[in-house]
Structures are given as structure tokens and as C-alpha cells.
Write a structure and sequence with these properties.
single chain, alpha+beta, 8-stranded antiparallel β-sheet, 7-stranded mixed β-sheet, 25 strands, globular, binds flavin-adenine dinucleotide
Length: 523
């Protein structure tokens, strides 16, 4: 294997796959893509309904947060994809853009590189790469005949009856109830690796090294030179003549940066790491989407909980095998809604509806049939942080999202729970209800909702902002994603988002990789 390349990309996740494709379009540019995980050629990865079966497997970094004081001191299980495709190989496949207004936070001074006007063409570029077409409003749409359970149809009808606008399936995050657009093709998951990496993986100027864990970036005289990693149990070093790009995700990029001597002075010192650039913002400002659901048991046996029975699983499995259709092609969170509670047209809450119980990441599988609806807090006021536990690259980071530590977040989530409750009690969904399942009795007061939130809130798996874009005194990267204080080093992944956006985060992450790759190609 060569050890010298023009560009080294660390992490073959949502952003890394986009970068590997675009930056190797120039045949004279030798690109190395390093991934800690293994191949994504596994049947469970392709089956949309099986995404939570990938949790706590070898495809998952399997992180847990510190005990969360506002969540009854529970540790939050936080899956992250450790496989080619990264989180896009284990996620729930909801394919939605950030909202135009989100990009007001991305503009540094007069620089409008990340303004909505400038990012929209790159959202569309990603969408086309995934095979979607763009309609007359500029939104991505699909002709794919996605599986949609009749409970989901009824949720959408009940949401309309409640008063929400009905939206057709598209990529925009504007107000209204919507059957989500999904990156599912012919019944199977279509990940960032499927869209960007597999079609070009044999390019002679692209090398992909799997099962290779990056320890740190080696920096000399404030310039990133090489990458130290562990491959097949052996130490290995790769040199970059041009750029090193960190795309290891919102938890692992700051970890690698800190091990490379970029971070808060006291923290680096406490671990004996020689500082290359002091920056207290590395690992700080962690934001994440959280969700808390209400679950109802239905009168009949017609929900996707059938997949939790041996017979149901076998039947649906055969249908998937022979015709790539049926319940196994559901992404579970089939539909939802965007709600604007204030003056802004940017949504405050996103509802996610699943035609089955989805409790504690899907690990709790009741022997009954039901559905779940939950509000997601889109713009949390609470921020957390991430630190190293040690300098050992095999150790998980210390993650403290500090969920709900700002009381505004609890108030917003209670509001979302009340709206969810009211939608559920509209016909026709209400006709299906036998009884409430979780919580055990119908919530009647804010205190009842709060109790449910403190016990059952979970991450929606969208951590961001741990290496955020901004000005030198308050961020980690500049508007072209260059790491402050270090030459030849960029960070390109969900960690650079200034704030978590108004929807699920895979599409905005791929958009930013497309935008920056285009910029690098122009130079
Ligand atoms: C369970 C789950 C469900 C989700 N559902 C949705 C959804 O439905 N819709 C949506 O829009 N978003 C969803 N998301 C979020 C979305 O997938 C992520 O925000 C997005 O994929 C992040 O992309 P990234 O490039 O920043 O990181 P990742 O995709 O996580 O990529 C990082 C890559 O770097 C590799 N890596 C990390 N450390 C090292 C190292 N030391 N050495 C070498 N390689 C390393 C990782 O293994 C990984 O492959 C979900 C996420 C999860 C986990």
C-alpha cells in the first residue's frame, strides 16, 4: 500500500463518501479514504426496517453519554455508524433538507459562502446524485413507491383534521404534516456509500482502507503532514502532500483533533498532550435533537410490531427477499410533521410517527400492537460538550450533551407532547386506539408530561457543532472549513454545523461536503 497521497480523508461516512467521490474526479489527485469500520455489504444494512437491529453490533461505535441530570441520571445510548457509509449505513433514511432560515447562523460577517442562495444548488446536487428529481418549486421529489402502513395514512389524516397543512412528499422542512422522503431505492437502503462511493471505488487514483483506526494527525510547525493509524493491529503512517480532511463525525472528529493537540489548554495538559493549537471550542457547543414519544396500543393486530414475532418476521423476510417489498422496506419513522410555534417560518418541532412501538431505541419490544408519535426539539437551548477520557484511540470519548439543562427546552417539549396527544385523538387514528401504553395513563397535566419526558426522552442521533464554523475567537473552523491555527487541515462533517438544523441531519452534512469539494476543485 502507498503511504503518500495528495489528500487524505479520515472517515468514510456521509461527508467522507461525498468528498472521496468529488475530490478523486481529478485523475491526477491521489486520494486516500480511511475508515475504522468494515464493509457495508451486509444484508441487515440494506433492510430499511432493520436499522435498529444494527445498534450495539460491530457496525456501531456504541457510545453512552455521562448520566444526564435532567433525565433521571440516565446515560444516553448514542449509536454512531462504524462502517463504510458511516451513520448513513445505520440511520433511519429520512431525507430532508435543513430550513432556509437555518443558514442565517452560517454567515460570518459579510461572507455569504453558506447563505441559502449559495447552498441550495448543492442540496439539489446531492438529491440528484441520490436519483431524486427536482420539482418546479426546487424541492426534491421521488417516484419511488415507498411502503406506507395504513396507521401512517391515518396519522396523516388525523394531523390534517387537527389543522396541520398536508404536504406532499418532498425534501423541504417547511411547516406541515408529511410522508417523509427517504433514501430507499427499490425497497433497500441507498446510503451515502451507495450514492457516492460504490460507483467510483475502482478509480485508480482512489485508495480506500477499511478497518483502519486513526489515532491522530501529526502536525509540524503548525502544518498537518501525516496521519497515524492502527491497521490490522499495526501502527501505520500516511503522508499528505496537500490536505488532510477530518470527516469522522461530530463525536470522533473533535476526539481526533484533541489527540492531535488541538483543543482546550487545560484539558490537553491534563492528558499530557503537546498542544499544537489552543482552542477551547474543540468539543464544546455540542447540540443534539432529542425526542420523547407517546405510545398507544391498538385494537387490532395490524401494526409493524408484527416484525417482532417469529412468524411475522419470517413472512416479511421472504417478501423482502423475493420482491423487495412489504413491511421490511419501511423505515419505521414513515411520516411526521414540522411545527412552527412562534413567529418564525422556521420549524421549532418535528414530529416523527411510527406504525409500531418504538421505545428506548427499539430495544423494548412489547408483545402487543401499537404506534408511537413523538415531538423532536429542533433548536435546543441546552448545549453540551465532549472530552477525551484518555489518549488511547480505542477509548470512547466522554460525552455530556447536558440535555434539557435549559428550562426552555422542557417547556417546548411539553408543548410538543400536548400537540402530539391532540393529533392522536383526532379521527381516524383515534378509532384505532385500545388504550394508552406509554405512559401508563393518559397525561393530564404538564407534570405528567414532564415525568414521561424525564424517563423516556432519547437522542434522535443528530449530534452536531463540536467543531463549529465561525469567527476565529468563537469557533474551530473558518467558512472554508479550514481549522484555525493549522495549515492543510479541514474538518468536513456534522461537527462543523454552527447549530443543529431544523430537520434530520444527513442531507445537510452531505450538502456541506458537496459545497466544499466544489470550492476545492475550483482552486
Ligand atoms: C441511528 C441513527 C439514525 C439516524 N437517522 C437519520 C435519518 O433518518 N435522517 C437523517 O437525515 N439523519 C439521520 N441520522 C443522522 C445522520 O445519519 C448523521 O447526522 C450523518 O450521517 C453524519 O454524517 P458525518 O459524515 O458527520 O458522520 P458519519 O456518517 O458518522 O461518518 C463518520 C465516519 O468516520 C469514521 N470514523 C470515526 N472515527 C474514526 C477513526 N478514528 N478512524 C477512522 N475512521 C473513523 C466512522 O466509522 C464513520 O464511518 C441518524 C443517525 C443515526 C446514528
Amino acid at each position: 500500500m502507498e503511504t503518500e497521497y495528495d489528500i487524505i480523508i479520515i472517515g468514510a461516512g456521509s461527508a467522507g463518501c461525498v468528498l472521496a467521490n468529488r475530490l478523486s474526479e481529478d485523475a491526477s489527485c491521489h486520494v486516500l479514504l480511511i475508515e475504522a469500520g468494515a464493509s457495508d455489504r451486509h444484508p441487515l444494512i440494506s433492510i430499511p426496517a432493520a436499522f435498529s437491529e444494527l445498534f450495539k453490533t460491530s457496525f456501531d461505535w456504541n457510545y453512552n453519554s455521562e448520566p444526564q441530570s435532567e433525565l433521571n441520571d440516565q446515560e444516553m445510548y448514542s449509536p454512531r455508524g462504524k462502517v463504510i457509509g458511516g451513520c448513513s449505513s445505520i440511520n433511519a433514511m429520512i431525507f430532508v433538507r435543513a430550513h432556509a432560515k437555518d443558514f442565517d447562523d452560517w454567515i460570518i460577517g459579510e461572507d455569504d459562502f453558506w447563505s441559502w442562495r449559495n447552498v441550495l444548488p448543492f442540496f439539489q446536487k446531492v438529491e440528484r446524485q441520490f436519483g431524486f428529481s427536482i420539482d418546479e418549486n426546487g424541492d426534491a421529489i421521488s417516484e419511488e413507491n415507498y411502503y406506507q402502513h395504513d396507521l401512517t395514512d391515518q396519522f396523516l389524516q388525523s394531523a390534517k383534521k387537527y389543522g396541520l397543512k398536508s404536504k406532499h412528499r418532498c425534501s423541504s422542512a417547511n411547516e406541515g404534516a408529511i410522508p417523509f422522503l427517504k433514501n430507499i431505492k427499490k425497497g433497500s437502503r441507498f446510503s451515502a456509500a451507495d450514492a457516492y462511493l460504490h460507483p467510483i471505488q475502482r478509480r485508480p487514483n482512489l485508495t480506500i482502507v477499511k478497518n483502519c483506526l486513526v489515532d491522530k494527525i501529526e502536525i509540524k510547525n503548525s502544518k498537518a503532514n501525516s496521519v497515524a493509524a492502527i491497521h490490522n493491529g499495526k501502527q501505520i503512517r500516511f503522508h499528505a502532500t496537500s490536505n488532510i480532511i477530518l470527516s469522522a463525525g461530530a463525536y470522533n472528529s473533535p476526539q481526533i483533533a484533541m489527540r492531535s493537540g488541538i483543543g482546550e489548554e487545560g484539558h490537553l495538559k491534563s492528558l499530557g498532550i503537546k498542544a499544537n493549537f489552543i482552542n477551547p471550542h474543540v468539543g464544546a457547543h455540542l447540540e443534539d435533537h432529542i425526542i420523547c414519544g407517546l405510545s398507544y396500543q391498538i385494537k387490532d393486530n395490524n401494526s409493524l410490531d408484527v416484525l417482532n414475532t417469529n412468524f411475522g418476521k419470517a413472512k416479511a423476510g421472504l417478501q423482502y427477499l423475493f420482491s423487495k417489498s412489504g413491511p421490511m422496506t419501511s423505515n419505521i419513522a414513515e411520516a411526521g410533521a414540522f411545527l412552527c410555534l412562534g413567529e418564525s417560518e422556521r420549524p421549532d418541532l418535528q414530529l416523527h410517527f411510527g406504525p409500531m412501538f418504538f421505545i428506548r431505541h427499539g430495544f423494548v419490544k412489547p408483545k402487543a400492537h401499537g404506534f408511537s408519535l413523538g415531538p423532536t426539539l429542533l433548536h435546543p437551548a441546552s448545549q453540551g460538550y465532549l472530552k477525551l477520557r484518555s489518549t488511547n484511540p480505542l477509548d470512547a470519548p466522554l460525552i455530556n450533551p447536558q440535555y434539557l439543562t435549559d428550562p426552555k427546552d422542557m417547556a417546548m417539549l411539553i408543548e410538543g407532547m400536548k400537540i402530539s396527544h391532540d393529533i392522536i385523538h383526532q379521527q381516524p387514528l383515534s378509532n384505532r386506539i385500545d388504550k394508552i401504553f406509554l405512559p401508563a395513563t393518559e397525561p393530564k397535566s404538564d407534570a405528567d408530561y414532564e415525568k414521561q419526558i424525564r424517563e423516556y426522552t432519547q437522542t434522535l442521533y443528530h449530534p452536531t457543532s463540536t467543531c463549529r464554523i465561525g469567527s476565529a475567537d468563537e469557533a474551530v473552523v473558518d467558512a472554508r472549513l479550514n481549522v484555525y491555527g493549522i495549515e492543510n487541515l479541514k474538518i468536513v462533517d456534522a461537527s462543523v454545523l454552527p447549530h443543529v438544523t431544523s430537520s434530520n441531519t444527513q442531507l445537510v452534512t452531505m450538502m456541506l461536503a458537496e459545497r466544499i469539494a466544489d470550492y476545492m476543485q475550483q482552486r
